Amino acid sequence: MEIDGKTRTCGLIGNPVEHTLSPMIHNTLAKLSGHNLVYVPFPVEPGSLDKAIAGAGALNLLGLNVTVPYKSEVIRSLREIDDLARNIGAVNTLVKTDDGYKGYNTDMEGLYRAMTSEGVKIAGEQIVLLGAGGAARAVAYLCAVKGADKVYMLNRTLSKAESVAEEVNRAMGREAIIPMITEDYVKLTAGKYLAIQGTSVGLAPHTEDVVIADEAFYDKIHTGFDLIYNPWETKFMRLVSSHGGKAYNGLKMLMYQGIIAYELWNQISVSDESVQIVYEKLKGYFA
Ligand code: ATR
Question: Is 71 a catalytic residue?
């Protein structure tokens, strides 16, 4: 693509941003779709977020992704916010409107699309969700919004799971999330569960760590979804697989959060063929 007077700019704001794979995702999509668009990283210093958003608007940037540590803080600078992002309290994608930016959470829509693309469903499911931090809290909302029957939220610190459950259940008007301390996994009734691993345990370089090491737990899991994609196969995934379950890592979630952002910025649907090309490129970094 030739950069010219009509080139639109998108980018990533966060700190740090040096290790991001988003430029690869978006610049590949721009090339495949023939859009005159470039995507670049913008490191934003602490205390400069409001100025960055105002400046982006003034410079007519088409869209932005937002990463650590600004996903919540950015909300106060937005003109509008999508319902799911408001509920979650975190925004990772901004879309230019006439007078500012509208915020979305494509991380969770990305997880949902990744699961759907693998034939994994949430509606009506019994789900075990490991963790109660920022990522797991968002997953809890997603599961509740998408109609999970029950989500057993297991966490090392019970009080954190309790406060997430209270908040989500209040917002949803039903007891969708059941908070538990991790060791109480033994109390889960017999049956088959979808398990979502939403903690940082098992992330490289600590690849032998896992929240629940007891093999008996994995007999209850029909499918395991880890939000981690580095390593390619986590200990959690290995345990799910060795007990006959299907196991997936978080790379498709990462990819689809980017695809959905790109679709929002350009008001298009990315073709399956393009999705596959982006996935193969991403896989090249990890597999
Ligand atoms: P993120 O934004 O990635 O979700 P976070 O908000 O710091 O990060 O949450 C980390 C999650 O991993 C929490 O659920 C945390 O459990 P606590 O709430 O008890 O801290 C969980 N976690 C991190 N290290 C852990 C460990 N060694 N064993 C068990 N859980 C762990």
Answer: yes
pLDDT, tens digit, for every residue of 142-198? Answer: 999 999 999 999 999 999 999 999 999 999 999 999 999 999 999 999 889 999 999
Six-digit token pair at 140?
């809890």
pLDDT, residue 1, reads 79
Helices (H), 146-286: 158-172, 215-218, 235-242, 251-266, 272-286
Per-residue pLDDT tens digits for 82-91:
999 999 999 9
- Report the nearest atom of ligand 1 relative to the CA of 182: 29
Q: Are residues 172 and 146 in contact, defined by beta-carbon separation less than 8 angstroms?
A: no
Q: At 35, phi and psi to the nearest 5?
A: -80, 145
Query: Looking up tokens 């193969």, which residue turns up?
Result: 280
Contact of 195 with 221, CB cutoff 8 Å? yes
Q: Cα separation of 69 and 79, whole Å?
A: 20
Q: Whose CA is nearest to atom 5 of ligand 1?
A: 133
In the predicted structure, residue 287 carries a pLDDT above the cut 90: no
For the chain, give the longest Cα–Cα distance.
63
Strand 63-66 with 93-97, pairing: antiparallel
Distance 135 CA to ligand 1 centre (A): 9
Report CA-CA distances (Å) from 262 to 62, 93, 195. Answer: 10, 9, 29
